[in-house]
Design brief:
single chain; mainly alpha; 9 helices; 60% helix; disordered N terminus
Length: 255
């Protein structure tokens, strides 16, 4: 977090789902509602200046209903990220001797072993990132998610690859996907009109807000379905379902 940018982001003519990100390529893509991006950005600007929780709810509601077109369509925006996370989880499971480790043949992540966690996270994220315009978004979100999930000092090792760690990677990855989409990709310059210190506070506030919703939705799904850790296809569907539920929940917020 804390990456200030003057990137204007997409405009009203940009597709609702970036082509290389689509979880269901070939399926019809609806048009973004008129003024949805500008409405979202105005709400972000209002919240950034005030820090008010109600203003953040308004921004989240406008993000969910308009900027990304609702839960089902919005989740499709993260297809490249959920696929990369699924492959990373499955490859790490094989590296740690969890399950059958079938994906470790396709994604050999052993180069990350023995490296400082920030370096290891980057190696893992780059190994599974797509070779297209979504690569930077995937690498940023997934590497930050792995660092957060590791939650300890020292170098990355096989003994650390436990089911709890892998489940934490799933959770953190979902949070980072949404955070970067809301704060960086779609907000444009809406967070640039405050001081760096204020921006950091708002980013922390947004991160906590997203985490709370993801935690609740993920806990509910894990309780009823379990947490898939070795099959990338199953895990990809699991993440997509979580994202859809999170965005759908925000659709009901005031705004």
């Amino acid at each position: 977090m804390g990456t200030s940018s003057n990137n204007p982001g997409p405009n009203k003519k940009s597709p609702l789902i970036p082509p290389h990100a689509d979880a269901t390529p070939g399926a019809p893509v609806p048009d973004r509602p008129p003024n949805a991006l500008s409405d979202y950005r105005r709400a972000v600007t209002t919240w950034a200046k005030s820090g008010d929780a109600g203003a953040l709810n308004t921004a989240a509601g406008r993000y969910a209903r308009g900027a990304v077109g609702g839960g089902a369509t919005g989740a499709r925006r993260f297809g490249a990220s959920t696929s990369a996370t699924s492959n990373a989880i499955s490859g790490l499971a094989g590296l740690g001797g969890i399950g059958n480790g079938q994906a470790s043949d396709a994604f050999n992540l052993s180069a990350a072993l023995g490296r400082p966690i920030a370096e290891a996270a980057s190696i893992i994220a780059r190994a599974v990132a797509p070779n297209n315009s979504e690569a930077d978004h995937v690498i940023t979100a997934l590497s930050e998610a792995i660092e957060r999930a590791y939650d300890q000092t020292g170098d990355f090792d096989q003994e650390s690859v436990t089911p709890d760690f892998l489940q934490a990677v799933i959770e953190c990855s979902l949070v980072e996907m949404l955070f970067h989409d809301m704060a960086n990709r779609l907000a444009g310059g809406s967070l640039d009109n405050v001081t760096p210190a204020e921006r950091q506070l708002r980013e922390n506030q947004l991160h906590d807000f997203i985490s709370e919703t993801v935690d609740a939705q993920l806990a509910q799904r894990v309780q009823t379905e379990g947490a898939p850790l070795t099959d990338p296809l199953v895990l990809n569907k699991f993440q997509q379902a979580c994202l859809q539920s999170v965005i759908a929940e925000w659709e009901g917020l005031d705004g």
